[in-house]
Each structure stands twice: as C-alpha cells, then as structure tokens.
Give the backbone structure.
Amino acid sequence: MNAYIFPGQGAQFVGMGRDLYENYPQAQELFEQANKILGFSITDIMFEGTPEELKETKVTQPAIFLHSVILSKVMGDSFKPDMVAGHSLGEFSALVANGSLNFEDGLKLVSQRALAMQKACEIKPSTMAAVLGLEDEVVEKVCEEIQGVVVAANYNCPGQLVISGEVVAINEACEAMKEAGARRALVLPVGGAFHSPLMEPAREELAAAIENTKFNTVTCPIYQNVTTVAVSNADEIKKNLISQLTAPVKWTQSVQNMVADGATLFTEVGPGKVLQGLVKKIHREAETTSGEA
C-alpha cells in the first residue's frame, strides 16, 4: 500500500517550487492564486528571497504547504495514496491531498496558524531542543523533573525526540539530558515552543478558524499527529487538528501504525527528504521515495 507523507517546518530552501511554477501551467495558476489569498508575493520569497526571509514562520509554513500541495496536484494520475500523514504543519498538506480540505481553505488555515503561532511566540521567551540517544521514557521523566514548562514535543524516530518549552527550562533540561546519557541535547534555531502548552493562545485562535471551515469526505484515511491512528471522520479530523498545536507530534507511532496497516512504500511529497530518513529509522524494511512531478 502507498503512504504519502508531507514535511513540516524546517524543510524550506530558497528556490523551492520554482521548477513547478516554470514547467506546469496548473502550478503557476495555484501559486498566483496563493499570492492573492496571502496578500503578498510568497513566490518572490520562495524563488529568490533570502534564507532569513524564508525562515519567518508566517512565510515558512505557507511556503512548505504550497510546495507539497502543488507538487501533489501536478503529479496527476500517479498520485494515488492509500493513506496519508503529515509532520506538524504537513498535516494540513495531507488533508488537502486526501480531499478533506480544498486548496484555498487549506492555505488560509495554514496562514492563520502561522500568524497565531508567531503571536504566541512573542508572549514568552521559548524554544525547542533536540535530544539524541535517549529512550523516550527517560526524556519524558527528565522533563517532569524540571521546574517550568518543558515537554516532549516531537517523537521523530527512536532515539530522536524534540522537547519544547520556556527558554530557562529548556536549557536546564538539556544539561539534565546529557547527565542522563544523551548523546546530544541541542537547542534549535526556532521561534518558539511549538507543540507545548505555551501554544494555547494560538490553539484557541486556530480552533475558531477550523470550526468555521468546511471539511469534505476523504478519499483515504489520515494518520494524525495527535492520535496516530487512521481517521476518516470529518469531526474527528477537526478535533485532532485543533489539539495538534499544544500536543506532541507522535511521528514514530504514526509510521508504526501505517506499517501495521499495510504501508510498504512511503512517498515524501514536498521539499527535502527528512521524513524519508525518519521512516527508515522507524522501520528499516520500508521503501521510501520522493514525489516527482
């Protein structure tokens, strides 16, 4: 069975999507539509901006969404998912890919999500850190022992977990992780504490937007970050999408469940190959490939 997977923040690069724009009239049309919806020329930043401009949350998230979704559309008949999943932001791309959201609504939600997250980041100094070489349970236990807000945020693959929280608490946790035997505990260059309780203001803002958006019947199930199991029901999809901002991304568990349900080929649709690497670490026998237009 074919599983299609969609990357999240961090996969962006200058020049992303330009080949699609230049070679496919359908892609050009969708990119131009996106510029109108967003109210600024995101194509200029994607194709020839600076890495700094591209790294701004309000730009990064729509840029990755557009690259993934437009690529899936120009793939035409070769795009045949039996199941989909997305890492964090990638979940919105996956929901357009399985017909749950239309292109315009998906982009509007991603833009609102990015702006709400950026706003939440400005309330309190917060960040994230990657912890390598520790069991998940050990990471969770260390987080519980630290004063202040610090939680396990991204279960990327066995031995690679990202923690999220207040700056002071994250720094303390990194030291404690090293003492507990972590190979590395490294603060990441991100704007704030995504997938932690500190994103509550953003969750509330996004919840209202999601509730007012029409979700359609899906063509195949999505394995969502929050529950990690196959979901096809629109109300359930909405509920999980709202919870996602303050809940951890359980990528390891999602991939394991996709494999258990018959996934043999994982196709990453969008910029980069990060998810293919993670899938291989989660399930060595899985075949992985990149989506090609």
User: Anything to note?
Assistant: Strands lie at 2-6, 83-86, 126-132, 150-157, 160-166, 184-187, 222-223, 230-231, 265-268, 287-290. The CA atoms of residues 200 and 246 lie 6 Å apart. DSSP finds 13 helices and ten strands in the chain. The first strand starts at residue 2 and ends at 6.
